[in-house]
Amino acid sequence: MAVLLDKSTRLMVQGITGHQGQFHTKAMLEHGTNVVAGVLPGKGGQEVHGVPVFDSCQEAVDVTDANASIMFVPAPYAKDASIEAVESRVRLLVIVTERIPFHDTLDVVTYARAKGVQIIGPNCPGLCTAGVAKAGIMPNHIFTPGPYGVISRSGTLTYEIVDAMTKAGFGQTTCVGIGGDPIIGTSMVEALELFARDPETKGVVLVGEIGGTAEEEAARFAKTMDKPVWAYVAGQTAPPGKRMGHAGAIIAQGMGTAESKVRAFAEAGVPVAKYPRDIPELIRRG
Amino acid sequence: MKFYEYKAHEIFRKHGIPVPRGVLAASGEDLVDPPLPCVVKAQVLVGGRGKAGGIKFAHTVEEARQAARAILGMRIGPYTVRQVYAQELLDIAQELYLSITIDRSARAPLLMASTRGGVEIESVPPEHIVRVHIPPLVGLQPFVLRNLAKRLGLPREVASQVSDIAKKMYALFRGEDAEVVEINPLAVLKDGRVVAGDAKLVVDDNAEYRHPEYAKLPQDRTPLEEEAHDEGITFIQLDGDIGAIANGAGLTMATLDVLNLKGGRGGTFLDLGGTDDPELVKRAFEILLKANPSAIFLNIFGGITKADTVALGVTEAIEAMGADVPVVARIKGVNEDKAKQILAGAGMHSVGTIEEGAELAVKLRRAA
């Protein structure tokens, strides 16, 4: 089961012929993903790691029945490519691209929601259902199948925490990298709702950071869940007014502080790790 | 991207939003024909200029020049005032508030309006603020503005001007890739005109490529941050003394947090991102060394990033700069062992975890 991504996912890769696209297509295939098509306008008819390349999303979907897409398209072209994917009737679109103007994301996310397409990202490491399929850029070797879900606004920090979980024997159902931008397709609380309904997932790890109110909303929802949730919040020492790398990681007008998030988790009975690698210890305590 | 007030006024004017007349000056003598009476304002990218004495009133040209001379060269926060803006003094009857920002949770632009302008909006009770989300694919429709004017209880002649300004603000918000457009106060003058008494504008950094005309405008960055920005390196100077460098924003933040928990203080936020271009790593390290850190903690969790390439860039930068700063490195990922060898060969310390690395960096840091 897991969430969002499983054996039935037929993945298309937009921007497959670029350096990133080729590299990650290989890694996704190695994780067992059913990568059925690639798309790059003008490169139709080629193959990348045995995957057929098409000129458009529609052709790829018509020929291969792709039902999900992952996008490695530079920011200035991301809006066009996203809407093209939505129009081709995939159910799921993972946008890895970073530095997309958020006004473009606003349009894309609003349109996709109206069309019933689930977007993950942008500016995210994507999805991995451990040992089953990956629509993302996370390193394969850190994952091991197990009963814990992971939701994160970060990339490498997630790898750090998943790696620690795996080494401690706490495997994962699905890891969802929701992305570090202010406007994202799937929020932390929406991802948490998916895990709450997933019978395979026994508990969920949230990796948050400063900026916005996603963690506060997730904390309120966690209170209503009958599964345990654990959290880590990055940026406890970040100064206000400074954008800490992620477009969304900024304390503005007193909003989005780490204290507020840690307090919200504490009030919801969600244990918060002091160090990233303390997460397995928290899971152990239950 | 942030804008000096005069520049924001210019952009507001371009979109047809009424702003007071004003002139920019870099010296007292520059003020030949200021509007009178006027208010002379320091042009800085940080708040609090009024409290710092950066806003003065003048009734004659000589007074305006004196005010300009007093304000120019003043320190406000970390900045020295280089320019003043002498702006027509408005004869205000009522101060309103109008802004458009982005509501992350609702995934929509948020229009906020209040009849209690002229003070910080955070201090206005929520029941006195009208909040309306604007569906991005539909835009700001006239009925929304009609309802807004009614809820604010504005008289008809004011309402029509406020609606027109709100409409133009939304066009500016979308057209200029703005994160924040705020007019506070939106001044209703005694002669009945409605004018933007102040103009705040922040534009999305990620949209810089669509607005090359803004790319070269000064920002509230330190000279080193500016240098890093020009190289496409994410670098922020902080209050502490230990240089932190990592790959990925979340991991860099976490690295700084751990340094703090171990009794140190991070002096830099340097995010290498997903790069394993040795030249870029070298350049990033050179900028970090210029910040003169007491120690450096390098924390790489490489999924794709090649650890040995990063290590090579680091050692080359240290050698090129002739730096003798202690370096603690925690590198995981592709070619990890090779990276450790390279670092050990250059006299650097390799550790296994973030906690160990932070502890060692705090212990080895040089006295200031």
Protein traits:
heterodimer, A: 286 residues, alpha/beta, Rossmann fold, 2 domains, 9 helices, globular, B: 368 residues, alpha+beta, Dna Ligase, domain 1, D-amino Acid Aminotransferase, Chain A, domain 1, 3 domains, 6-stranded antiparallel β-sheet, 6-stranded mixed β-sheet
How do the strands and helices of this protein lay out in sequence?
The complex is a heterodimer of chains A (286) and B (368).
Chain A: E1 11-14, H1 19-30, E2 35-39, E3 47-48, E4 51-54, H2 57-64, E5 68-71, H3 75-87, E6 92-95, H4 102-114, E7 118-120, E8 126-129, E9 133-136, E10 145-152, H5 156-167, E11 172-177, H6 188-197, E12 203-209, H7 214-222, E13 229-234, H8 258-267, H9 279-285
Parallel strand pairs in A: 1-2, 1-5, 2-4, 5-6, 6-7, 10-11, 10-12, 12-13
Antiparallel strand pairs in A: 3-4, 8-9, 8-11
Helix pairs in contact in A: 3-4, 6-7, 7-8
Chain B: H1 5-14, E1 22-25, E2 38-42, E3 55-58, H2 61-71, E4 75-76, E5 79-80, E6 84-88, E7 92-103, E8 108-114, E9 129-133, H3 142-152, H4 156-175, E10 178-189, E11 194-196, E12 200-203, H5 212-215, H6 223-231, E13 234-237, E14 242-246, H7 249-261, E15 266-271, H8 278-290, E16 295-306, H9 307-321, E17 327-334, H10 336-345, E18 349-350, H11 354-364
Helix pairs in contact in B: 3-4, 6-8, 7-11, 8-9, 9-10
Structure characterization notes:
Chain A has helices at residues 19-30, 57-64, 75-87, 102-114, 156-167, 188-197, 214-222, 258-267, 279-285; strands at residues 11-14, 35-39, 47-48, 51-54, 68-71, 92-95, 118-120, 126-129, 133-136, 145-152, 172-177, 203-209, 229-234. With 286 residues, chain A is an alpha/beta fold. Chain A folds into two domains: 11-120, Rossmann fold (3-Layer(aba) Sandwich), CATH 3.40.50.720; 138-285, Succinyl-CoA synthetase domains (Rossmann fold, 3-Layer(aba) Sandwich), CATH 3.40.50. In chain A, helix 3 runs parallel beside helix 4 (102-114) and helix 7 (214-222) runs parallel beside helix 8 (258-267). With 368 residues, chain B is an alpha+beta fold. Chain B folds into three domains: 21-88, 2-Layer Sandwich (Dna Ligase, domain 1); 92-213, D-amino Acid Aminotransferase, Chain A, domain 1 (2-Layer Sandwich); 223-364, Succinyl-CoA synthetase domains (Rossmann fold, 3-Layer(aba) Sandwich), CATH 3.40.50.261. In chain B, 35% of the residues lie in helices and 28% in strands. Chain B has helices at residues 5-14, 61-71, 142-152, 156-175, 212-215, 223-231, 249-261, 278-290, 307-321, 336-345, 354-364; strands spanning 22-25, 38-42, 55-58, 75-76, 79-80, 84-88, 92-103, 108-114, 129-133, 178-189, 194-196, 200-203, 234-237, 242-246, 266-271, 295-306, 327-334, 349-350. In chain B, the strands form four sheets. In chain B, strands 7, 8, 9, 10, 11 and 12 form a six-stranded antiparallel sheet that branches. Chain B has a six-stranded mixed sheet with strand order 13-15-14-16-17-18, with helices on both faces. Chain B has a four-stranded antiparallel sheet with strand order 1-6-2-3, covered by helices on one side. In chain B, helix 10 links the parallel strand 17 (327-334) and strand 18. In chain B, helix 6 runs antiparallel to helix 8 (278-290). The mean pLDDT of chain B is 92. The interface between A and B is large, with 60 and 50 residues.
